[in-house]
Give the backbone structure.
Amino acid sequence: MEYISTRGIAPKVSAATAIKEGIAPDGGLYVPESLPTLTLGDITVMTDMSYNERAVRILSRFLTDFTEDEIESCVNLAYTREKFDSANVAPLYELNDKAYLCELWHGPTCAFKDMALQLLPHLLTTSIRKTGEDKTVLILVATSGDTGKAALEGFKDVNGTKIMVFYPSEGVSHIQKLQMMTQAGGNVNVCGIEGNFDDAQTGVKTIFGDAEFAKKAAEKGVVLSSANSINWGRLVPQIVYYISSYCDLVKYNKIALGELVNFVVPTGNFGNILAAYYAYKMGLPVNKLICASNINNVLTEFFDTGRYNKKRTFHATMSPSMDILISSNLERLLFDISGDSADVREFMKKLSTDGEYTIPQELSEKISGLFCADYCDEQETAAAIADIYENYSYVCDTHTAVACGVYKKYAEKTGDATKTVIASTASPYKFPHSVLTALNCENVAELGDFEALDTLAGKAMSDIPTALSKLKNADVRFDAVCKKQDMAQQVMAFIEK
Ligand SMILES: *Cc1c(COP(=O)(O)O)cnc(C)c1O
């Protein structure tokens, strides 16, 4: 299977090249030329398989230039019992006879980014070998918190790679900062910058665009690459858990084979829900894909009206990983429904020049039966956390709460009783202060990070994930902070080390 660019100008490439390049040379995103099909027979076969076996099955349909052995080896390096504290990798939690949470946060950083970022490094090193590249790959990441840590955990001590992460020194939570400053691994580096996330992102993009820098790095045996969510190697692992959760519902007799289900996805960059869309296009029996946003509800407006308008106030919310106004992966959906890369180029051009675009009605109509969208404001998000706790004695995180709140509104409005899987994207222990506040605990602001974790453990009656509790006594390895104009120099020093 070959991969083409959503902007239609770059040549077709193999999966390995698409993963190695990350973004197409015409600025577009790589997508498979056609999608593999999934039959009910395929689902039946996978029902008795482990998560890893299902992953191998599904990934081999997309990565046709990889051997089955290569895929199996990547999958088994990624989803291990040392790294995931659940044998099911992405287990379902039954809230009631209609709604299930698919817990995607059992990996080493307690957020769903691990599902893709544990696998990507192995897909990338295999791709590099397959394309004849012999240099060390240096992954550069600018992070607002979660992605950086997940990428560090994914790439740490992976042969043939190095990783360097920049974060806004004063712009991430204390726990997130500790997670990065104490990072283990012989091939990692972390540096704070004096500036905000946009400064970090701009700095990294400048280094990627600097031909002189690339030449100098190549002389030292290093090529640069990126681990952000436009890379196909980050998207394809996410298709697996939608299919896997359907297999589990069949396996445990919660649905009949072929029965339609809904998926609700708390959305930011549109990567996670796009993977659900691809699973649907392959043949997974889906009724509705419900796109849940926080108050940064640019996607709610898009699905309601066909207009994408990023010219709005940015709100910092208690679900920070969804505080996004440019959902990059929407480009792949637009390409899929339009089938015309000239349209996509036009929309993206309008987005960058006018800050908005509107898709024609016939395109809106193509997806209006499948997608619906809504959002929760901060108060509704907190209410959803309290509601789930009162009704089910289950503590969910702030991002998952947005999805639960949107699902509740949807079910009340439509009366739809279709079985529904809600993507649960982070452990509540990642956001202890917000969760405790939503649960009406007193004096939350006065609690230190580890006190807050202990208090939450009492409420949730579950164990604090060891990845977070061990931070308390972990040694700080990386406390450097640099000026934004010195980022390239820091990267070069790391290359030369
Ligand atoms: C990244 C993230 C999201 C948003 O996922 P997208 O693929 O960007 O839409 C939601 N929840 C959490 C916890 C995340 O880290």
Observations:
- The first helix runs from residue 15 to 21.
- The chain has a mean pLDDT of 95.
- Residues 111-113, 146, 229, 266-272, 321-322, 399, 425-426 surround pyridoxal-5'-phosphate (CB under 6 Å).
- The two ends are 39 Å apart (CA to CA).
